[in-house]
Amino acid sequence: MTKTTLNYAETTDLVINKCVFSDIMKSMRVSGNMLINEEYLPPWSVSIPDASGLERLLKLDKGTQAVAFHYVKRGFIEVVPEVGELIMVEAGEMAICFGGVAHQLSQYPEKKSVSVESILIDGNNPFAPNEKNRVRSTSVMCGVFMLKNVELNPLLAALPKILHVSTKKFDISSNLTNILGWIDREISQTVQCTYVIERLLELLCAEVLRAHLYQLTTSSGWFYAMKDPIISRAISMIHAQPGDEWSVNRLAGGVAMSPSRFAARFNAALGDSPMAYVTKWRMNLAGRMLRESQQKVEEVAISVGYENVAAFSRTFKRHLGVSPAAWRVRLNYV
User: Fold this and answer.
1) What is the CATH number of domain 29-148+167-215?
2) Taking the domain 1-27+217-334, which CATH number applies?
3) What backbone phi and psi angles, to 5 degrees, belong to 149?
4) pLDDT category, 7, cuts 50, 70, 90?
5) Mean pLDDT of 292-311
6) What is the pLDDT of residue 219?
7) Where in the chain is CATH 1.10.10.60?
8) If DSSP states are collapsed to H, E and C, what string results for 20-77?
């Protein structure tokens, strides 16, 4: 069959979304840690530090980003960010703080917040209900996703600062509900398995992001582009062969569209030109290779499509702020 835009619109949408989504999820090396699984009687308020504060609290490796999340099992909570609007999170809903902003969790707060650090150090619940008033308490489960290779990640860049997701509204809600139930049971065990918890949190992060993909109603951004069969096909080509000699003409040919129409459609969806997307994804990959392998800078440059090492180094520094060599030193890889 001759390739046409209509062919792609009819046949490639779901397959391409899965391919690119999986590629980016794998690149982030997601793991996690649980912080709270408690019942709180109002009035109460718990403060959560920003991403850098969480990273220090949990003593995370350099280059690992902490993303706080909160799930309400019963009742409701108010998530009050240091910057931005209050979000009401009800039973069966989650708030995930991808923007890394400091925030408070509360219900009718009357006193100064208790820091999550003091709760973790003391090991006590300062807002615990008794048997008589337990029916008025809120049950909440909080943790942290730990992400690597976040620089120039198109998926993360497209997320709101606080993502609000329900486990009730989507076809994949049963997955979210099941995973959260497994996590709840595992952390309630007398002897917990850290490996199991980390893998469950990896699954939870992926399902949360898929839920966002399903609920999205906006007409621009990376998640919207994943629903566009033409743009998602082009992005899939880039991710499959990032080191190829890509051009607007070649990408447009791959989706059976004129270069001008393709470039306009790509830019309208992502707010970036096709070649800007290519460059950013290459630099994301290069940063990952420098972090996780012992490849020489010259080898990394060739892997992401640069025969000229000087040109690669200039592009890397322009996007990531330091040279490839300095990047390795900063992450203690020399």
Assistant:
1) 2.60.120.10
2) 1.10.10.60
3) 55, 45
4) very low
5) 95
6) 67
7) 1-27+217-334
8) HHHHHHHHCCCEEEEEEEEEECCCEEEEECCHHHHHHHCCCCCCEEEEEEEEEEECEE
